[in-house]
Amino acid sequence: MNSTTRNRRKIIILLALALIAVGSPHVACRPGEDRSEPGGSADSRPAASETRPATRPDGPDVLRLLIWEGYAPDKYVREFEKRIEAKYNRKIKLKVDVIDGPEDFYGPIRQKRADVVTLTHHHFKDERFNYIAAGLLLPIEAGTIPNLKNVMPTLRQADFLSDGGRRYGVPICQGPYGLAYNAKKLTAAPDSWRILWDPAHKGKYVLGGNEYLYNVSTAALAWGYPDDTITSYDVLNNEDFRGKLRRLAVGAHSFWIGQDTADDLSGMDLAAVWGDSLGALRKRGETWDLARPREKTLCWVDNYAITWALKDKPFLRRVALEWINRLLEPDYQVDYIVREIAQVPITTNIAAELTEAETRRLHIGDPDFFTENRILLPTCSRRDRNGLQLLWKNAMKGLPLRKENR
For the chain, does the N or the C end have fewer beta carbons within 10 angstroms? Predict the structure, then answer.
């Protein structure tokens, strides 16, 4: 073999190795490295690795979940993996990663480093991300999620999930930023958010310290601003409202961060909460409940969505749909959503699984409860979001977030 032939062979081998490296699903993508956008251009076509199963030669297919903490409990993950293997005679592994804030979804989704995600309702069409308009999520046909028929109609058909007649997410859990009250401290349930401005309760309530969207919008509801203006910076940026917001912040005993806990609320009169603390408080002997203020209550809905990373991976896409369908079954909605994390179920076929107390507390069987008592936090423009954050920052000026410093 002469030197020219050897050199040619070396070049061919090196080129082959380079092509294998480029196509390998195990090569990590550096932040910002994948600049392709969804669409029809040559640059946005799936790479070779996107057309092959996300699997290792020596291991199972891997479905990558990037979610809010709590939405893929280990018990259900392991059970689901066994269910899929039995059904398809094919091993599957759910790789679960959790995020700290909504901004943490965008990079991994855009760079195809996440297959399934949990997005809160007002993030689907948030102009910071444009998940639907940019083609970063795959449409979900109703027939591929049999349990979708059991999701409450108001949320099953919600506009925030749809565009152009196509659905891009499936609700999985909901909850309020609710007005909680201590029944041992108050003889009757409060009927208005304005109770937080009552001097009798100054220093006896707690708020979410970082929940600026909810705090500002709730204050706007309390003081009579129309529903369609509660996230408008231009409307709320006036001396009177800024003064009321400052009074709300100054009057708080303390602030919880991330999730409300029993320690945050214990001994207080009132609180604005997600509700995580209420079950633990009841176990301590403190009877807390959620009020039904006449101004209504802001709420959130978390949803599972499938990203464009699975566009050319039919098996993993099918597994993703089955995982979402699994979480709409009564045992998950009751045993986990209701009893484990003390949130609100999304389905309507669970009455037989609930106690009488749970049925009353969750208003199961009252089809009008959601529309009459809840307001989905609107999707904010970038300007309004920044403005509301500034309003809350100014209201909190000089106030420490931590209880021990107050």
Answer: N
Confidence class for position 157, pLDDT limits 50, 70, 90: confident
pLDDT digits (tens, 9 = 90+) for 168-190: 999 999 999 999 999 999 999 99
Average pLDDT along the chain: 87
Looking at residue 314, its amino acid is: P
Report if residue 21 sits inside a domain: no
For residue 193, what are the domain limits? 175-299+367-405
Both 67 and 196 in one domain: the answer is no
Asked whether 132 and 124 are in contact (CB, 8 A), the reply is yes
